[in-house]
Amino acid sequence: MATARIATYQKMYVWELPVRIFHWLNVLAILVLIATGYLIGAPQKIFDAAEPSQQYWFGIVRFSHFAAGYIFFFNYLFRLYWGFVGNKHARWSEFIPLTRAKLREFWEVLKVDILQIKAQRELAEGHNSLAGLTYFVAFLIFLFQAGTGFALYSSMSDSFIPSLFAWIVPLMGGDAWVRQWHHLAMWFFILFTIVHVYLVFYHDWVEGSGETSSMISGWKFRKDESDDDE
Amino acid sequence: MDYEVPSIWRTMQAKGYSRREFLFFCGVAVAAAGLRANGLAQVVEAFESKPRPPVVWLHFQECTCCSESFIRSSHPIVADIIFDTLSLDYTETLQAASGFQAEKTRDETMKNNQGKYILLVEGSVPMAGDGAYCMIGGKSSEQILKEAAEGAAAIIAWGSCASNGCIQAAKPNPTNATPIHKIVNKPVINVPGCPPIAEVMTGIVTHVLLFDKIPELDSQGRPKEFYSRRVHDTCYRRPFYDAGLFVESWDDDAARQGYCLYKMGCRGPTTYNACSVTKWNANLSYPIQSGHGCIGCSESGFWDNGPFYQHLGAFPGFGIESTADTIGATAAAVTAGGVAVHAAASAVRKRKLVNIQRAEAEKSEAAHAEKEKEAEAIAEQENSDGGEEQ
């Protein structure tokens, strides 16, 4: 079964270590936040038989949520900073498609993703511009989620950081509405995860650029067309 | 016409109270205002020397439940606060005078005590229809409120109506019921609740009386001493919440055990009030203690915050009873479906791609093999040719 085709691949270092650490820490925090957040919104009947004095599971769920929230927030702040000092692919300019080339790429990616047409041109090494814009919107929602979360937390804490967000509560019409929107925004994270993970697999599948492993190794691969046979 | 108002101590003396009883009253006042014990001397001095402040109590769009709560204040002497401590000069509900006589009293009180009287407002002000929805003595409530607010030393908004509009401001708010802090250009003490707790009301009046200034307010204009904590934080059922033990339906065993009412839509976690500390009816009980969840009656717009017995309310624009979870789960299902269809289509395409690549590879391999064969043949030929030459 020697059906190998000989081709040369270019190895490109795309995701720097801080970007990768941010990514996986973010994954971990978001998974914990979704699981515990969902439980806080809809607590399940778990240890009903035990004596109340012997259990504290809901308290632990809430503690995990708040702890993961802090990690999520500081990790997020770090990523904002890295958007100014990181390499080309980590920069903010990559997240907002403003140039003509970027906009053209935007449509190209839409065609590849939705109509499943083969890409006519080379797609970006790092984020393509559709992904970039999606992450930009996601970052805004990250901020919204952190803000509403800390606003809800501010009434039970004397710490400095939650108190910075206390003004959101009257602005949104009371704790009930902050909770409501915070809960709805959780679903964004769930939808985002489904689509994000699928598209990574999909692009890896059709492009063969090592997209999935790139977030572990940092390297992506691109076939060197100039060196192609014939 | 000189209008000399006696101090509280003088008034009490005239009514035959002893010094001992007066001091007891001062002690109760200290507690009601949430002061520390060393504030007693200050209170005694104030009650001995200050004239009883005149009070104008206005009623607009409301149900009088705030007045009903206030006159049920549990501390025996504090219950007399409106008659003894304060000089209640005008209130439609309790005064004996009526008609022109009543209106005249109000005007005179305001004129004689410019900048000194306390203005208590119960009810919201309808701004629609030029104020036609609530008029007293030929004047619109807005007009009356603005006149009265002008010379007031302090303005207290009693109850949710005056603080945030309450039920008449619930959607669609046909009369454009407006809370008074949006009409008056002065600081207003908001005392929300439907009704507020009697002891909270007397406590706030006592504070204003003692210090001649309004208590420390939070971002929504509520006195911090009574509204800085959520009902949930001081609820006696809180340990059940932390233990994750919840009432699942009104008649289950958990309800009999007195577990947390969080899943039954209790608004304790989002409501700022003193119910679980001060309680109601002479410290007897409060809704959660009676087995019913908090409905959040002191929160702004609580009528529009979703069904009382549902943990999370409905979202506008998504159908009548769509909670965040219904919306989210539907969106997730649609997304997952889309992903599955997309993946199937990609699989077909990928298969084609692989087949093409495989064919190409086979072709190139065959070509490669042929080339090699040719080269071998040439080499062999050359070899044999060379051999022949030698």
> Main β-sheet of chain B: number of strands, strand sense, barrel status?
5 strands, parallel
> What would you call the structural class of chain B?
alpha/beta
Beta-strand level of the residues of chain B, as a percent range?
Answer: 5-15%
Characterize the biggest β-sheet of chain A: 2 strands, antiparallel
- Alpha carbon gap, first and last residue of chain B: 150 Å
Strand order of the largest sheet of chain A: 1-2
Number of folding domains of chain B?
Answer: 3
What is the oligomeric state here? heterodimer
Most extensive protein-chain contact, per-chain counts: A-B, 47 and 57 residues
Radius of gyration of chain B: 37 Å
What is the CATH superfamily classification of the largest domain in chain B?
Answer: NADH:ubiquinone oxidoreductase-like, 20kDa subunit
Give the tally of structural domains of chain A.
Answer: 1
Number of strands of chain A: 2
> Can you tell me the CATH class of chain A?
Mainly Alpha
Mean pLDDT of chain A: 86
- How do the strands of the widest beta sheet of chain B line up side by side? 2-1-3-7-9
* Mean pLDDT over the full residue set of chain B: 85
Which topology of chain A does CATH recognise? Answer: Fumarate Reductase Cytochrome B subunit
Topology:
The complex is a heterodimer of chains A (230) and B (390).
Chain A: E1 9-13, H1 17-41, H2 57-85, H3 100-115, H4 129-153, H5 160-163, H6 168-171, H7 175-207, H8 211-217, E2 219-223
Helix pairs in contact in A: 1-2, 1-7, 2-4, 4-7
Chain B: H1 8-14, H2 19-32, H3 40-49, E1 54-59, H4 65-70, E2 87-91, H5 99-112, E3 118-122, E4 125-126, E5 135-136, E6 139-140, H6 141-150, E7 154-158, H7 159-164, E8 177-178, E9 188-191, H8 198-211, H9 224-227, H10 238-242, H11 253-257, H12 275-278, H13 324-389
Parallel strand pairs in B: 1-2, 1-3, 3-7, 7-9
Antiparallel strand pairs in B: 4-8, 5-6
List keywords for this structure.
heterodimer; A: 230 residues; mainly alpha; Fumarate Reductase Cytochrome B subunit; two-stranded antiparallel sheet; 8 helices; elongated; B: alpha/beta; Cytochrome-c3 Hydrogenase, Chain A, domain 2; 8% strand
